[in-house]
Amino acid sequence: MRKKKYLVSFPRLGNYVYPIYAMLNRIVDKEITDILMPKEMTSKTIELGAGASPDFVCLPFKYNMGNLIESLNQGANFLLQAGGGCRYGYYAEVQEQILRDLGYDFTFVTLLEPEGLDVLKLYNKFKLLNKKLSFAKFAKEFLLAIDAIRVLDNVETYIRDNYMYEVKKGSFDKIHKEFLDEIMKVTNLTKLNLLKKNTYTKLKNVLIKSNTKDIIKVGIVGELYTSMEPYSTFFLEKELASLGVSVKRYTTVTYLLFIKKWKIKKHIKYANKYIKYALGADGTESVAHTLELIDKGYDGIIHIKPFGCTPEVNAMPILQKISDEKNVPIMYLTFDGQTSMTGIKTRLEAFYDMLVMKREKQNNVTTLTSVKQAKETNTLPYKKDDYEFQN
Amino acid sequence: MNKYYIGVDIGSISTKAVVIDNENNIIASKYLWTEGSPINATKKVIKELKEILDSKKINCDIYGIGTTGSARNLIGSILNATVVKNEITAHAIGTLSVFPDVRTILEIGGQDSKLIILKDGVVVDYAMNTLCAAGTGAFLSSQAKRLGVKIEDLGAIALSSKNPSKIAARCTVFAESDLVHKAQIGHKKEDLIAGICNSVVSNYLNNLAKGKKIEDRVVFQGGVSKNIGVVEAFKKALNKEVYVDSSSHLMGALGVAILSKNVNKNGGRLDFNFDIQNIEFKTIGRECKGCSNNCEIVSVYKDGILIDKMGGRCVKRK
Question: pTM for this one?
Answer without folding.
Answer: 0.82
